[in-house]
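Query structure, 76 tokens:
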């Protein structure tokens, strides 16, 4: 799954850790993200690239709220 791109269908929670502080951010419908690592289980937090930033989101949210797109479908 590493390197796969997904377009979000609904508003989805993600977590960011700038300077060691965890903060919540919301990704919006239509945003395209790229998976940075492979999930280890259905509830695992995975790293994704979004708008040039690395954020964490639940793998389950990715599967439920996103649809896989081809590499040519848009930039991250």
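Result returned for the query:
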């Amino acid at each position: 799954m590493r390197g796969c791109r997904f377009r979000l269908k609904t508003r989805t929670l993600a977590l960011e850790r700038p300077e060691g502080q965890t903060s919540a951010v919301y990704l919006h419908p239509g945003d395209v993200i790229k998976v940075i690592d492979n999930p280890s289980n259905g509830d695992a937090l995975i790293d994704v690239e979004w708008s040039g930033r690395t954020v964490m989101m639940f793998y389950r949210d990715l599967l439920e709220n996103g649809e896989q797109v081809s590499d040519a479908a848009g930039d991250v």
